[in-house]
Write a structure and sequence with these properties.
The structure holds two protein chains of two kinds.
Chain A lengths: L4 E10 L2 E11 L4 E5 L6 H8 L8 E9 L2 E2 L5 H5 L2 E4 L10 H5 L1 H5 L5 H14 L3 H4 L12 H14 L4 E5 L7 H14 L4 E5 L3 H7 L2 E6 L2 E7 H6 L4 H8 L1 H9 L1
Parallel strand pairs in A: 3-8, 3-9, 6-7, 7-8
Antiparallel strand pairs in A: 1-2, 1-4, 4-5, 9-10
Helix pairs in contact in A: 5-7
Chain B lengths: L3 H41 L7 H29 L4 H15 L2 H16 L3 H25 L3 H9 L4 H30 L2 H7 L8 H10 L4 H23 L11 H8 L1
Helix pairs in contact in B: 1-10, 2-5, 2-7, 3-5, 4-5, 4-8, 5-7, 6-7, 7-10, 9-10
The chains are: A alpha/beta, B mainly alpha.
Chain lengths: ~260, ~260
């Protein structure tokens, strides 16, 4: 089966600072790939390279990224972001109601039909399993919601765009245990429709929902493979250290 | 029974209240006198407003022309100057223009187009454009930059184009500051006399209100007080209207929100 996303020999730098080094990986359609690793390991930078948000910060690339067989660098960045949804770690909501926020991306892309917007918003709510909970909240001001609900709205906003690829950067950072469990269940449903790349600091979360996992340290992939295999039988010493918590001990000792 | 500390606090509060009243009195007394003088002039039935209609019309036409030209140009430069190198050059030129005194700008305008355009609205408008464009551009830039970068980024992540982000996310959030910048610009246009004096060399009849005010003052006529009050009232009214109308803090970033909210709930 051809990969939905294929990264090959990717190097990313901001000025003289190398952020990603010779990075290669593939995600099959309908799979979840988890990126794990310490802070500043390059997880978020990889996500921002894939939807070319890194372009806005003056990044330069070497290597290639193929989305459904087409190089993302040959596509217009705006057109690319219309098929790649992204949920950042901290939700940024716009002024207006919850409904306005869920359909914000659609409106910004010039889609105006109220019936179409409503249908896509309802579809996103159903995919997330939030149709009952959020229906009474659609008219509420989004900015007055608590942080976990805001994060869910940011999630719904990305889903309403019906993306081919969903990039999630620490999506559960502001969720409690119940919210995280709900989101993970939803991700397992959503992955049938779109491929998911998940950057997370929570090893358990990667273990629960990811089909494949990649460990990124200092901008390099240390190990990459099926999640069960990587967690139970790590090949690299650094992976074993990271999974058992010794990597952190080493870092703090070196500090 | 009050303690010593409570007594001291009470005395301090009384002193503060007295000082506040004094400050308010000092500020309002001249304004009150001006109003009374103006009312007295009205009651005497003197032909104070003769010819003022022409000045007002000229001022409004000039104001409309300047704002129509200067607002889009300033907005265009402000919204793009940090991205395009070519516009950065233009922005730097405007920076130099903003340092030049009104006297010099008036002289420059006289040399450039007074002969060609005469003493009508176009000559006054062009001079005032030179005068207000730099400051308006800087204020527009500040207003747009005050919108959090995260809002632009969120828009980009959703696949919005630059113009869509500017007009649908950034500009509505900056509407209050943009409106205030326009009012300041209006105040400068209506209040500017030096540059226009340099442009014309003398005070022509039926020109800007500010020039008429200067003429009346130089003739030591009481009417000048009334004109000053009229100008101040117009500007105060404008400021009030703008601060109420363009305070966008409670509005949605998306215009159709009212309908959708109703349907949604």
């Amino acid at each position: 089966m051809p990969a939905a996303l294929s990264v090959s020999g990717l190097n990313l730098r901001y000025g003289s600072q190398e952020v990603l080094l010779d990075l290669s990986l593939e995600i099959l359609p309908g799979h979840i790939l988890a990126l794990i690793g310490p802070e500043d390991g390059g997880k978020s930078s990889l996500l921002r390279a894939i939807n070319r948000m890194a372009d806005e910060e003056g990044a330069s690339y070497c290597g290639n990224i193929l989305l459904n067989g087409e190089s993302i660098f040959l596509k217009d960045a705006v057109a690319l972001r219309r098929v790649i949804g992204m949920v950042p770690p901290t939700p940024v909501l716009f002024r207006g109601s919850v409904f306005d926020n869920i359909v914000a991306g659609l409106r910004l892309q010039g889609r105006r039909g109220e019936a179409e917007l409503r249908g896509l918003a309802e579809s996103a709510l159903e995919q997330m399993g939030l149709a009952k909970e959020y229906a009474p909240l659609l008219g509420e001001r989004a900015e007055s919601l608590p942080l976990p609900a805001k994060q869910m709205v940011a999630f719904l906003r990305a889903l309403a765009l019906e993306p081919e690829l969903l990039l999630l950067d620490e999506p559960a950072r502001s969720l409690d245990a119940a919210g995280t469990a709900h989101m993970e269940e939803a991700l397992c449903r959503i992955k049938k429709r779109c491929t998911i790349l998940l950057a997370t600091n929570t090893l358990q979360q990667a273990g629960r929902i990811a089909d494949e996992t990649a460990l990124l340290i200092d901008g390099r992939i240390v190990e990459y493979g099926e999640t069960a295999e990587l967690f139970s039988n790590p090949r690299a010493r650094q992976t074993e250290d990271y999974l058992t918590g010794r990597y952190r001990e080493k870092v703090s000792l070196s500090l | 029974m009050m303690t010593r500390e409570q007594c001291l606090n009470f005395c301090f509060l009384c002193l503060c209240a007295l000082l506040s009243l004094l400050a308010l009195g000092l500020f309002f007394w001249p304004v009150l006198r001006l109003c009374l003088d103006a009312a007295a002039l009205f009651l005497k039935g003197r032909p104070m407003l003769s010819g003022l209609g022409l000045n007002l019309l000229f001022s409004l036409r000039t104001l409309a022309l300047v704002l129509l030209l200067v607002a889009p140009i300033a907005f265009f430069i402000a919204s793009r100057s940090y991205r395009h190198a070519g516009l950065r050059g233009l922005r730097a030129t405007l920076g130099v223009l903003s340092w030049l005194p009104a006297v010099f700008l008036g002289l420059l305008a006289r040399l450039l187009f007074a002969e060609v355009l005469g003493k009508g609205v176009p000559a006054a408008a062009l001079t005032l454009i030179f005068f207000v464009l730099p400051s308006l551009t800087v204020r527009f830039e500040d207003a747009l930059r005050a919108v959090p970068k995260s809002i632009r980024q969120a828009g980009k992540m959703l696949g919005a184009t630059d113009s869509s982000i500017l007009f649908r996310l950034v500009a509505p959030r900056a509407a209050g500051a943009l409106g205030r910048a326009l009012v300041l610009c209006t105040e400068r246009i209506l209040g500017e006399a030096t540059a226009l004096l340099m442009l014309y060399g003398a005070v022509p009849e039926g020109n800007m209100l500010s020039l008429e005010l200067y003429r009346l003052f130089s003739l030591q006529r009481e009417d000048s007080l009334l004109l000053a009050l009229l100008l101040a009232l117009i500007l105060c009214a404008l400021r009030l209207v703008v601060s109420h109308r363009w305070d966008g803090s409670s509005r949605s970033d998306f215009t159709p929100s009212a309908d959708s909210t109703r349907k949604g709930s």
